[in-house]
């Protein structure tokens, strides 16, 4: 069975819903195809998950946050409820179906979108499926002793899920830091392998860090600048939305009983070898936080604004005085480690799109979401256009641009 449409949007997260919002406003004949449920990626987060961005940053087009706690942080369930209510409010057309292929038909001059149930023949395709499709595991995982349980951070739900014994968490980005802290608070012995992520203070000089980032224009930084930062730090800086918002300070983690380790070099059986870079990584994270605070101070000075002084630097200096032992090798049996959690990120997988618009690394090539293939668009990708592009805070801006481009194309080919 074949169904003809002007547009198919692939993915029912915040990006796909935002594009659908604009197309609905213009009466465009379109459909969202979502293989799971609305906001499926949010539903798979761990049980105690909170957003790290405050509620006032919930700004899907036509649906800004209007609750009583703008400075709070939504839970996993509250995020999915927000997305569900958005789709219902604007009567967005969503069909649960997995797209298994996208190709171009030169004879009909249309895209062919294949699903198990039917085929769609469309003039435009908006891929809103994100960029985190496959769990990224290092090759060392295959050489770990078979007695050790391994799971990816995406599979983690809570401490009760983890078997008795000590735990090695590899990766200290947002997920790794949160998981390590939760396990430590549950009374588990945790080893945390630290990389090059920066850290941010949760609040500074009377305001949330995200408020300052917005005021300083950091969310509007262009994608080219962001790629340079990512090359340097490898991950987004970490901060927490738990307990009404709190700092993540790895030096404090060490005082709380978490064993900090340098970056993983190799694992062979029960032998773990580490880079001797732990202190350098901690210093780099401290430098990131200090650079951010200095930027805020400079802004306050230049604008003549009046904000209270802050004492987070005093705490930082106190924590720098704590002794941190640097190991370069240890044995998992001797350490009592029975579980490894790989908080090592994700990789894209667009092999189901048979259109030559990808780099050698498998990333879509585009300019602000518009590819060289007429009528094929991407949205919701990191660094799509600005820092805020994939966020609930900023995806609407990209959705407006792509929708305008798409509608103009529809008008031109109908003439």
Automatic annotation (TrEMBL):
Domain of life, per lineage: Bacteria
Keywords per UniProt: Oxidoreductase
Gene3D superfamilies: FAD/NAD(P)-binding domain
Entry GO MF terms: flavin adenine dinucleotide binding; monooxygenase activity
Signal peptide coordinates: none
Full protein name: FAD-dependent oxidoreductase
Native organism: Paenibacillus silvestris
């Amino acid at each position: 069975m074949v169904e003809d449409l002007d547009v198919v949007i692939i993915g029912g997260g915040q990006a796909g819903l935002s594009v659908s919002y604009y197309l609905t406003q213009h009466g465009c004949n379109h459909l969202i195809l979502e293989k799971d449920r609305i906001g499926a990626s949010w539903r798979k987060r761990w049980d105690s998950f909170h957003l790290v961005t405050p509620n006032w940053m919930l700004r899907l087009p036509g649906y800004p946050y209007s609750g009583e706690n703008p400075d709070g942080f939504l839970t996993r369930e509250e995020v999915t409820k927000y997305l569900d209510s958005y789709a219902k409010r604007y009567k967005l057309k969503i069909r649960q179906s997995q797209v298994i292929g996208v190709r171009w038909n030169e004879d009909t001059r249309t895209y062919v979108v294949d699903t198990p149930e039917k085929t769609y023949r469309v003039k435009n395709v908006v891929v809103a499926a994100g960029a985190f499709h496959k769990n990224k595991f290092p090759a060392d995982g295959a050489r770990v002793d078979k007695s050790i349980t391994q799971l990816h951070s995406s599979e983690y739900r809570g401490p009760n899920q983890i078997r008795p014994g000590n735990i090695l968490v590899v990766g200290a980005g947002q997920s790794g830091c949160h998981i390590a802290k939760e396990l430590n608070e549950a009374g588990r012995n945790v080893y945390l392998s630290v990389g090059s992520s920066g850290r941010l203070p949760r609040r500074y000089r009377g305001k949330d860090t995200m408020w300052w980032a917005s005021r300083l224009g950091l969310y509007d930084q262009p994608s080219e600048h962001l790629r340079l930062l990512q090359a340097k730090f490898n991950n987004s800086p970490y901060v927490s939305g738990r307990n009404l918002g709190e700092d993540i300070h790895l030096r404090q983690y060490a005082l709380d009983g978490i064993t900090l380790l340098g970056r993983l070099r190799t694992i062979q059986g029960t032998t773990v070898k580490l880079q001797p870079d732990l202190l350098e990584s901690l210093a780099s994270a401290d430098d990131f936080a200090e650079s951010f605070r200095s930027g805020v101070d400079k802004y306050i000075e230049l604008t003549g604004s009046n904000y209270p002084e802050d004492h987070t630097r005093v705490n930082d200096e106190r924590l720098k005085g704590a002794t941190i032992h640097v190991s370069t090798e240890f044995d998992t049996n001797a350490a009592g480690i029975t579980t490894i959690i790989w908080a090592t990120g994700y990789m894209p997988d667009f092999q189901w799109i048979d259109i030559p618009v990808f780099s050698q690394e498998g990333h879509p090539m585009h300019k602000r979401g518009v590819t060289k293939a007429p009528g094929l668009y991407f949205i919701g990708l990191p660094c799509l256009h600005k820092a805020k592009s994939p966020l609930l805070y900023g995806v609407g801006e990209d959705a407006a641009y792509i929708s305008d481009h798409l509608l103009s194309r529809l008008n031109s080919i109908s003439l």
